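Two folds, back to back.
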Amino acid sequence: MFGVFYMAKYSDEFKLKVVKEYLEGIFGYRILAKKYEIPDTKVIRRWVRAFHSFGMEEIKRKRKKAVYPVPFKLSVLHYRKRTGASFQDTAIEFGLNNPSIISHWKKAFEKEGMEGLQKKPKGRPPMSRKKKQKPKKEMSREKQLEREIELLRLENAYLKKLNAFQENPNAFLEKHKQRWHSNSTKKDSN
């Protein structure tokens, strides 16, 4: 993260000015860092190496973040492991202007394997239109039987009331009117 922060902090013109000043041979890394209040000489070293390896275009900030395929990332990591090259040398070998990205790939690969090297979506995932169903809890056989008995009791009571209604609808309605009336007066008194 160190390199990423400092690479993006300075303008392209400023970076080029510092690199040219270093290449003229008047000042070294340490003096240039003090002169321009750059906290670490590694930043200037990186700019100079990028300029030597790739020219002025690599010093310039990238306006669009590059996306690298997984096989490319694997070949970079394999090269570094096989040769023992530094992050900087590996970045130069593969044309990358930011060596710290290789360090990120290495950590992600060590932590998550191939999954860690794949592009991850940014931000919050989109909301789905379907409601998420709650996972069903496993019921014991005893609970299942109790539930089935309760459902059968409800069904039986319903059928009895349906049968009573069909035999004499007026008596059924009159009986239940009284219940509804007494229930509503109880509610009103509370």
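---
second:
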Amino acid sequence: MDERIRFITHEGKQILLVDFTNCPAREVEQVARHVPNYVTVQPRGSVLVLADFTGAPIDREAIRAMKEKRGFR
């Protein structure tokens, strides 16, 4: 998962990049379930998240996984 979720710096700001590019639907769900592990250890309200869904099919399970995890609200 670490290759799909990582912090980047842009104009001096830390941004959590979640790269769903060309992920199969099942992997989208798995990656989404790991995002809170990165977000919840940071101070509340301090994380900017950028997600790239280019070429990634989204199914109901992936959407459900993102909705139930606090990293994607």
